[in-house]
Amino acid sequence: MKISVIGCGYLGAVHASSLAKLGHDVVGIDIDQAKVDLLSSGQAPFYEPGLPELLTETLAAGSLRFSTDMSAAQGATVHFIAVGTPQQEGSNAADLRYVEAAFDAIVPYLAPGDVVAGKSTVPVGTAQRLAARIEAVGAHLTWNPEFLREGFAVQDTISPDRLVYGVTPNDDHTVSVLDEVYASVLEQDIPRVVTDFATAELVKVAANAFLATKISFINAMAEVAEVAGADVTQLADAIGYDKRIGRRFLNAGLGFGGGCLPKDIRGFMARASELGAGDALNFLGEVDAINLRRRERMVDLCREVLGGTIKGARIAVLGLAFKPDSDDVRDSPALDVAARLAELGAQVRATDPQAIETSRRIRPNLDYVATVDEAAHDADVILVLTEWREYREIVPNSLDSVVAVRAILDGRNCLDPVQWREAGWTYRALGRP
Ligand SMILES: NC(=O)c1ccc[n+]([C@@H]2O[C@H](COP(=O)([O-])OP(=O)(O)OC[C@H]3O[C@@H](n4cnc5c(N)ncnc54)[C@H](O)[C@@H]3O)[C@@H](O)[C@H]2O)c1
Predict the structure, then answer these.
(1) Is the CB of 73 under 6 A from ligand 1?
(2) 72 in ligand 1 pocket by Cβ < 6 Å?
């Protein structure tokens, strides 16, 4: 099937190349010429495991190409909209200007029977509002939210947990077109939920609200554990054995960030308020606040370990990305903590396996270094703020002669305290004695 994907960021570039891999003829369209040039030459504009190989393979096979020209979408049967929906400046609400612009741009190239499939995360009610413009030219609208996780995006796109189609009642045409797009996904017996626009839009933000709540729940337990002298990691293991609770997403630490969870829970609260159901989501304000407090607590813990003064201290920061296996630093707790410490007068030297360049664009004044040894050189304390595998596997004694003081703060509860303490290090972590 001929498919266009409009917006080739973290979501769109992976979606376009995955659909090409699944056997479709795909054009990815983005307004960013530099991004299109990189993608066209087989290079991923961001770090995502497996994406460069997928681009190379599908570009060489001729099943994928990229363009900045919207007319390249003409002749495609399905047009996926995968542009950004960031948080509006000065408000919790989602900024829909890119979605509006993408719809404005695609309408002239639609033919009767075409399907426009929204993948961007939007406030409930958006699809209903946009449908008339699509239907006026005889095309069909669906909202088909995306649940991929950065770091696992290729796998999640080719083999998702579920597919959700939001369609107008009795729009069998759109359902059968989407079934054809996802034929090889559906062959894997992956559940498919066909529903209305509003439910499809809500499924996405509800899923993110639940995940954010789970993380903030365990971080709230960490706050209590800290004053009670308990260990939140053992608490998480013990409650996680209960299958109704489950252990996943119960890792206490520096909290969530990235381009989705924070802005999605805020956008969800804003939209619910507009609809008169703001009270139902008041708890998400608390989820957000608990999450942000962890960053402050990390700074306090650092001050404590440094004997009361951050100013002038040499601090090594390991990890800047909001999560491992990604270079995404949008709303990254790690980058935020690094920047706060620098603002308090510390000499911060920060490193990350993939996220130095993305961090530099947002925080140009931090001191970035390429390796753990450079970051840790003469350091008074090391902070592990993103749980990259290479940081989890550091052998304590390998840094003994590198640092000035053997002290490590584990912002992700990803190190073994026994191993570090036995090696003669001061080990501190969030939510643990
Ligand atoms: N990143 C994720 O893990 C993820 C997962 C699920 C859902 N989402 C949702 O997907 C959407 C996109 O997120 P992202 O992380 O890929 O954002 P992104 O910022 O990485 O990518 C958005 C892309 O859209 C392009 N764009 C903007 N306006 C355009 C237009 N008018 N025409 C063509 N291209 C245009 C931008 O240049 C950019 O490349 C958001 O709504 C997000 O919430 C993201």
Answers:
(1) no
(2) no
Atom of ligand 1 nearest to the CA of 10: 16
What are the tens digits of pLDDT across the range 373-403? 999 999 999 999 999 999 999 999 999 999 9
pLDDT digits (tens, 9 = 90+) for 126-153: 999 999 999 999 999 999 999 999 999 9
Specify whether 298 is located in the same domain as 412: yes
**pTM summary value:** 0.96
Asked if the structure places residue 199 within a domain, the reply is no
For residues 178 and 318, state if they share a domain: no
How far is the CA of 298 from the CAs of 135, 247, 345, in angstroms? 52, 23, 16
Determine the length of the chain.
Answer: 433
Question: What per-residue confidence (pLDDT) applies to 408?
Answer: 98
Residue 19 shares a structural domain with residue 58: yes
**Closest ligand 1 atom, residue 119 Cα:** 10
Q: Do the beta carbons of residue 27 and residue 65 sit within 8 Å?
A: yes
> Residue 232 corresponds to which amino acid?
V
Q: Are residues 183 and 53 in the same domain?
A: yes
Query: Does the active-site annotation cover 8?
Result: no
Q: Whose CA is nearest to atom 44 of ligand 1?
A: 11
Q: Determine the structural domain holding residue 301 and report its residue range.
A: 289-429
